[in-house]
Amino acid sequence: MKRSLFGVGVALALGVGFVVACIPHPSEDYADFLERTADYRKKPPVDDSGPVDAQAPTQAIEGIYYGSCLSALSVGDLNKVLRFYTEVRFVPGTGGGKLDIQFTPLKGVDFSSGQPLPSPPAKVAKSETHGASFGTKGADVSSTGRFEVSFANVIIDKNANPISGREISIDAVFFRGLFSAGGGSPAPEADAAAPDAAAGDAGAPADAGAPPPTDAGASAGNARFCATLQGSVTVPIKQFLDPAENFCVFVPVKEGDAPPEVKRDEYKCKL
């Protein structure tokens, strides 16, 4: 009987030892996981230099740009991009320059049929804008043309929403872009006719000592710029706009020009 009890005791001891050995130790396992995956979790170094040939303009620029943003809200549909009448003023300075930029939503939808149908503005003009403007003055532009502007909240009027024809509200909006002498986004493959260099607002004020502003469309070197778009949509749906997937292209125009075509592969911005 004693031998039997002794055997049972040994078996129980072995069993308990086995169970204890099999009990997971979350803290130790997690520490081991972190150690084994450290190299995989390292963030790649941030390239703060911009494109190799990027350089902020060395002359003052003032003009109108057609802004076109392909966002996740558009689900890849180029007919449903968000469009902006964009007023720009750049003054070069030490280390880059200063940028004034103002966005006003452009018409994007037609309600005449009773249903909201995507419809671009007939022209890039203030008469085609809807809703409130938003913008900033004196944003820093680095020597490589990089800039960032942010807004606590942006409202896109329903008449400028080609996606659903409803008002859009976006919180914590960031535009991070490249305003460089060579342009930050690819230009169309087909060569466009050079605009009249004498056109533009010749009477626009300029800072003392700065070169006179150049009409934005007068030089191919200032043809366009780009930006990534980040924000949290709260109305009419909730959706995060990832800057890695949401891009804006800004093409120089004159008041009353037809909206320029922006091809799908032009929605990018190498920062």
Describe this structure in words.
The structure is a single chain. The protein is an alpha+beta fold and about 270 residues long. It folds into two domains: about 10-40, no CATH class; about 60-265. Helices cover about 15% and strands about 35% of the residues. It has three helices and twelve strands, in the order αααββββββββββββ. Strands 1, 2, 3, 6, 7, 8, 9, 10, 11 and 12 form a ten-stranded mixed sheet that branches. A hairpin with a 3-residue loop joins strand 10 and strand 11 (about 240). The longest helix is centred in the N-terminal third of the chain and has 21 residues, at about 1-20. The chain is globular, with a radius of gyration of 28 Å.
CA radius of gyration is: 28 Å
* Record field, number of beta strands: 12
Question: Which spans have pLDDT < 50 for at least 5 consecutive residues?
Answer: 16-24, 36-50, 189-221
Instruction: Supply the helix-strand structural class.
Output: alpha+beta
The tally of helices reads: 3
Helix content: 10-25%
Distance between the termini: 82 Å
Mean pLDDT: 79
H/E series: HHHEEEEEEEEEEEE
**How many structural domains in the coordinates?**
2
Q: Major β-sheet, in short?
A: 10 strands, mixed
Shape descriptor reads globular
The proportion of residues in beta strands is 25-35%
